[in-house]
Amino acid sequence: MTNALRLGIAGLGTVGVGVVRILRKQAKLLEARTGRRIEIIAVSARDADKDRGVTLSGYDWETDPVALARRDDIDVFVELMGGSEGAAKAATEAALSTGKHVVTANKALLALHGQALAEQAEAAGLSIRYEAAVAGGIPVIKSLAEGLAGNEITRVMGVMNGTCNYILTRMEATGQGYNALFEEADKLGFLEADPNLDVGGIDASHKLAILASIAFGTKVNFAGVEIEGIQRVTLEDIRQAADMGYRIKLLGVAQRSPRGLVQRMQPCLVPANSPLGQLEGGTNMVVIEGDAVEQIVLRGPGAGEGPTASAVLGDICDLARGCRMPVFGQPAVTLADATPAQTGLPAPYYLRMSLLDKPGALAKIAAILGEAGVSIDRMRQYSHSETTAPVLIVTHKTTPAALEHALEAMAVTDVVASEPVALRIEQI
Amino acid sequence: MTNALRLGIAGLGTVGVGVVRILRKQAKLLEARTGRRIEIIAVSARDADKDRGVTLSGYDWETDPVALARRDDIDVFVELMGGSEGAAKAATEAALSTGKHVVTANKALLALHGQALAEQAEAAGLSIRYEAAVAGGIPVIKSLAEGLAGNEITRVMGVMNGTCNYILTRMEATGQGYNALFEEADKLGFLEADPNLDVGGIDASHKLAILASIAFGTKVNFAGVEIEGIQRVTLEDIRQAADMGYRIKLLGVAQRSPRGLVQRMQPCLVPANSPLGQLEGGTNMVVIEGDAVEQIVLRGPGAGEGPTASAVLGDICDLARGCRMPVFGQPAVTLADATPAQTGLPAPYYLRMSLLDKPGALAKIAAILGEAGVSIDRMRQYSHSETTAPVLIVTHKTTPAALEHALEAMAVTDVVASEPVALRIEQI
């Protein structure tokens, strides 16, 4: 155990530079904690000449990450390039096929190819570790797969895209609309090159699919996530929700139902005074519920050089200490198929609509809800200007199917001025 | 790796029964996750005939926990008896001297004898794991020692005694005083046999000393914790603090200072809108700050059968999977002495006092603070009845020494009606 752990690092963007910086600055501390020197042997990135603010001269430079992954003088391939296909995938496969463990921050790669990669790794007795892929600096993979290994997990949920949470909390704080805050986030550099990864909920859904696999012992199934982004969240709904004691969050929820696995990523209402409701700005939060532990809440920075590098280092230290785990918490070949539940679990809903100023309009809506089996918990009609009246309804627990049925019936009445907004209220 | 992991469990109180229950109920899940069967070989408790609501007939019964620990047919000794001396200590030592790993929930044992036990274990190549000893179901030991191993930890703090937090939050909610809520907690069975362990801050300080050792690479030093319990917290201060935007919590803080290690357990003010400020009832919270990760907040149940058993099971699963760690995150023989800082780090303070109704009384207090170098951030004098006037002061950051100096000077004036209350405001 006194031989060094030798790393090859592919990708020297923000996270890669952060990892190199910690390995240089904390070399003694890391050796004290793991009992081994941790050495960078070689690195790889697109531009060898760029000044990254950190000394790289002691390391071999590889232009091709696949060549880096294949080197026989490294023990661990650290993949920090990103992207689910191309170089990241090829290099990860090359590392596994030549006997290296892999540490990665790549959520897209794992969400789309996690099962195949895990099978390849485990067949060769190798580890893939990816703490940095989910919720930045929060040790959520470790907590779920190791700390809570004695639990049958009942629900995992979280706010796992800082940019979306930034936009939503700034909408409430500033009174500006979605488009203005999207532009602000863009100017601040908070958005991915393809912003739909953020605001469309894709990035957060990659993370949710990974957590669901560990939590429920199922093959990671990104295609099974029902995804809705934040693009249609309006200032009006944020304000009305606040008025009723809720906040709107882009919330990912994974849960087993009698009919299969539920994986949803969508704007939801959560109680304003709950930990999720109180989450501001770019911070992430994951809530894990298990039959023994009840509920654990983990909160921390979801991105950034230091926090993400911290997560990568945690994985590297585990490998240096000799801890080996199945990639998704149990051997990949034993994971079950994640059959998506065709219908979601019941929940209360928030409904907002504009009714035309006609006699009996509200009665008609109430009747439609009643016929669909949707019962009303609270209702508010606001004083109306001109020809339409805004109405807010919070329902009791209802099935998504019953709600859908009611919304369809409303659409063909002559009293609704525009398509009603319906948002799930997640009970915490 | 296909041989079973064989357990001997000493102590069948709430936690012990919870552990047995999970091992029986989740046997298949645990085997899938760890790759090994986990078997209870023998148990030990005071009363063999008591009905504990769980079947024990398949296990050998030992009346003496030391004899259980010495059995050569177990791999792991699970110590759930509690108490820093006597049987728990003797049995733990016996387990280590006969080649067994130890899993324990015993914070007192580790806080007082952790260094010697860790040295004994590590010399024999054995592990001692104790996730359940700190903050119940929250995987805080794992997060700190493994997940955040790449960080230089800068501060660890937390609310780690649910009973104290219950009493303090109930005082605010009900308007009842400390004594009434102490009695309520007693009736609900929330108090240890020696209630001073809870309300005197001892139990929480055991936990803080353990966290500080891992965080700062120092020998666990319970004697070095400055401890003040919640017995002197008044309803008046809870209300005034709330009025200024704060809540009073029994907060443990460990931090390195230029003069040594600071370990404090004392009632502190924290911002009411911070995660710590919002923590209600028996829930625990630990905040970990590191140079890379910035700040992680972990929240969950601090006690109870399920949550504590969940933590014990996490440790057992790690041992089953073959993960081995130094007890306090780095080899015990390399841990530094935890020299207590003789003086605390600067902080703002909350001061409440009653001034006698004399001309110039407030001016005298302001002058004393100024002379001691303590500057005032906010001050309120309330309209006074009869002969005394209540005064509240929030200071700017000041050293505990300067504040002490000012308080001593106030005591010898003729304007202060009773000893001023001074509470630290912890900045988060």
UniProtKB/TrEMBL annotation, chains A, B:
One of the record's GO molecular function terms: NADP binding
Active-site positions on this chain: K207
Pfam family name, one: Homoserine_dh
Start and end residues of each ACT domain: 350-428
BP GO annotations: methionine biosynthetic process; threonine biosynthetic process
Enzyme Commission designation: 1.1.1.3
Superkingdom, taxonomy of origin: Bacteria
UniProt xrefs under CDD domains: ACT_HSDH-Hom
Pathway annotation: Amino-acid biosynthesis; L-methionine biosynthesis via de novo pathway; L-homoserine from L-aspartate: step 3/3; Amino-acid biosynthesis; L-threonine biosynthesis; L-threonine from L-aspartate: step 3/5
Entry keyword set: Amino-acid biosynthesis, Methionine biosynthesis, NADP, Oxidoreductase, Threonine biosynthesis
Coiled coil: none
Positions of NADPH binding: K107
Binding residue positions for L-homoserine: E192
Family to which the UniProt record says this protein belongs: Belongs to the homoserine dehydrogenase family.
Entry-linked PANTHER family: HOMOSERINE DEHYDROGENASE (PTHR43331:SF1)
Protein name: Homoserine dehydrogenase
Organism of derivation: Antarcticimicrobium sediminis
